[in-house]
Every structure is written in structure tokens, then in C-alpha cells.
Amino acid sequence: FDSLLDELQIVKIKTIGDCYMACSGLDQKNTKEAAANLGYFGLKLLEMIEKCNTKLPPKRQLSVRIGIANGECIA
Q: Are residues 24 and 34 in contact, defined by beta-carbon separation less than 8 angstroms?
């Protein structure tokens, strides 16, 4: 996941267990672009998970939940 961050101007805040927290638009004035980058990031994560799952047995496959919030970021 980390390999996509620079390409999309996304900053990883932290990981907690299985939670991967990231944000975009911290230093941008174009918040629509920041939101679009996060959406694209989520889609790319889904693709990466699907690719990994093709190599895993059905009972060991990975899943992911993706949520996107808009507003101020305090970290």
C-alpha cells in the first residue's frame, strides 16, 4: 500500500492493527483533487487485495473495508 502514497500525494498517518489510516490534501488547496486521489487509492487497494487472493486458498483470502471522510484532519 505504501508504494502508492507518493504517486497520489497521500500521507500515511499510522497503522493500528489492521487499520491503515491515510489522508490527502494537507498541503493542497484543491480538495476535490485530494478526495479523488483517496478514491483512486481505495480502488487500487482493492485491486491489490484481489491479486493477492488469486494466490491464496479460499479460506485464507483477504478482505478490506474502505471508508473516506471529509473535513479537518488532526493527528
A: yes
